[in-house]
Amino acid sequence: MQIPIKRAIEKVPGGMMVVPLLAGALIATFFPGTPKYFGSFTGALFSGALTILAVFYVCMGASIDIKATPYIVKKGGTLLIVKVATAMVLGLIFGRVLGFAEAPVTAGMFAGLSTLAIVASMNDTNGGLYMALMGQYGRPRDVGAYTIMSLESGPFLTMITLGVAGLSAFPVQTLVGAILPLAVGMLIGNLDREMREFLSKAIPVMIPFFAFALGAGLDLSKVWQAGLLGLGMGVAVVVFTGIPLFFADRLIGGNGVAGVAAASTAGNAAAVPAIVAAANPAYAEAAAPATILVAACVVVTAILVPIATAWTAKIVGREVEPAEEAAATPAEVPASSAPAAGH
């Protein structure tokens, strides 16, 4: 007896990402002690998102042709600039035009909302989510674009956006650590085509495992604590960053899928409000509610972005590498070698 599990999962938009992610989030929310209770390999599966991502990154790197490096810089640089610029514009509107530069809204349905919360949630893309989605709906070099986008990580660009640049050291070693697995994979894949083929096969297999581990780090109760405001902010991140990112990606020759895949909030963004407040006490009042709101955005965007990306890929189609395109197109038969009629 065969049960069509794979087919059922794939019927869900972004199913290989969304279904395992939701499974992990549900267990983390209602049975948070599961990893510690079982320990061993089971516990490692719940907490191994970074490890799985590191292997995923090496395999993706191996599948990237070194000739694609200019493309990676162009794609990653464009998405980085548009994402940060969008956060900056929204921060300026909320902070200067509406007058909430540092303190949060204190009353009404928007109580707790602050410029800090808006910028922190909009600035930083969930890199693991982006790479997993691009592994499924994009090209290997689209995954590599995150090496440039990783500059968003941490409080540095948030501080620049808020006008407090210089209060945080630029984490060079962290950036090198983020790029190194991809670089090693690219080196191996470009030195040996057989290794490229071997490692590339592991890419789709790792997506559901990474998604589960990512989901295991999401507490759905954060959405409940933040209420409708947190839910609305999560939707706003997808809409207000996703639309300009979609068109920016198309403007540089992409199909827009990578832009939508980047319209999320990174998990480490939830730590940014506290770091910013520690660096500048003027944001101390806004830090606590901002942390809850940003955490809600992490959960909401982790669920919505895979669905939006799958829907976008279905509408615009999936980009393929030139080699794939050539293989899919039947070779034309030269007229001189065509058989004569009747033979």
Automatic annotation (TrEMBL):
HAMAP family, per database record: KdgT
InterPro entries tied to this protein: 2keto-3dGluconate_permease
Protein's cellular compartments: Cell membrane
Stated name of the protein: 2-keto-3-deoxygluconate permease
Biological role stated in the UniProt entry: Catalyzes the proton-dependent uptake of 2-keto-3-deoxygluconate (KDG) into the cell.
One Pfam family, short name: KdgT
Catalysed reactions, as listed in the record: 2-dehydro-3-deoxy-D-gluconate(in) + H(+)(in) = 2-dehydro-3-deoxy-D-gluconate(out) + H(+)(out)
Keyword terms of this UniProt record: Cell membrane, Membrane, Sugar transport, Symport, Transmembrane, Transmembrane helix, Transport
Record-annotated membrane-spanning stretches: 12-31, 37-59, 80-99, 105-122, 143-164, 170-191, 198-218, 224-248, 260-280, 286-308
Family: Belongs to the KdgT transporter family.
Keyword Membrane: yes
Record membrane topology: Multi-pass membrane protein
